[in-house]
Amino acid sequence: MAGPGRPRAFDTDAALDAAVEVFWRRGFAGASLTELSSAMGINKPSVYGAFGDKAQLFQSALHRYVERNMGYVTDALEQPTARECAQAFLTGNARAVTMPGRPAGCLSVQAVATPDDSGEYAVLARNRATVQQLFADRFRRAIAVGDLPADEDPDELATFLITLSSGFAIRAADGTPRESLLASAHRAMSAFPSTAT
Amino acid sequence: MAGPGRPRAFDTDAALDAAVEVFWRRGFAGASLTELSSAMGINKPSVYGAFGDKAQLFQSALHRYVERNMGYVTDALEQPTARECAQAFLTGNARAVTMPGRPAGCLSVQAVATPDDSGEYAVLARNRATVQQLFADRFRRAIAVGDLPADEDPDELATFLITLSSGFAIRAADGTPRESLLASAHRAMSAFPSTAT
DNA sequence: ATATTTTTATACCGCTCGTTAAGAAAACGA
DNA sequence: TCGTTTTCTTAACGAGCGGTATAAAAATAT
């Protein structure tokens, strides 16, 4: 298994988890290589050797973040009805952005605030657009099988949910408690269409 | 009116407007003094002479931004009914964050993404909390005069609106068109209580 | 005119940033 | 044991940052 050369003295998975935490808490630009490497428990050249430059490390961290902290998205998509899907997404998001012991908010929403010259904003925007597309497709299928009224617009429903979840991330970072976000999720569901008769 | 000394060769109001635009587009950290002073049409020492350091300039810019680009808040608060108030706020916000010729999004939401060591995040968070409080008080009065059902929670209603507007800012920066945001605003209004009988 | 005050323009400061060069250290294959 | 390969540590690089020292320029006051 091991080829020639000195073996790594650190666990790359644990180091990446540490990088996720720093990017989550500080954002892309706010996370310095010094803080990153320190949190990862390794020196800067080791970061470059194992993960590439800062932009590549960020993309790896985002991928890891999606796997570990956005599982509620796929959970929601698998719900039997569109309403349960929307409900699961909103409550799952509200819970994810207010996890005790983790940074408040959502890495995918807050790590890059404004469109920058580099490509990091585009990476996050694409990630968000992908999630929205998944829900739009889910609602399209729901309309096709009569689970949602035919006069509903699946893209508009998906955009409504993503807008709310983006707001949840901002509010969570502001210190809004989980219960408040869940109350907003509950209220928003009263604006979500019921199963077509 | 004019005392001794060489007079200013620039219009401080126009310079501050230019600074607002840069902070709006780039965020606080992303706006360098070089870009700021260049957009303001003056040299860096003139910025310090007229506006203080970067943090003070940012606070002045935020104040100007609220005056010039968040008038829809006070407009909404003056609406005769709570529903019209909420409606005016959501549509006014959706329009403000998608103004042609201006940066997409909201300076108060996006200029500082994550809680930083300096105080700029706190400045914006306080600004957002103030707006929320204004709406909570507005809805409290609405309940008192029977304009809203007595079993509604004014703070919960205000948080619902602020959450949506925060989401609008994020989505607008992502390129979501104004019509989509207005559609979400319309949908959200179907979750807002009607006047008590 | 001359002294005083304020703004102007240029150049520079110390610091932190992301990134890397250089060599010692630790594994392998022969 | 000896090269080879990879990772390790240390130290430094150039660039850009926020902020400022300096002195010329332009106004007023006497």
TrEMBL record, chains A, B:
Keywords: DNA-binding, Transcription, Transcription regulation. Coiled coil: none annotated. Residues 32-51 bind DNA. SUPFAM superfamilies: Homeodomain-like (SSF46689), Tetracyclin repressor-like, C-terminal domain (SSF48498). Residues 9-69 form the HTH tetR-type domain. It holds the Pfam family TetR_C_13. GO terms for molecular function: DNA binding. This is Transcriptional regulator, TetR family. It comes from Promicromonospora thailandica.
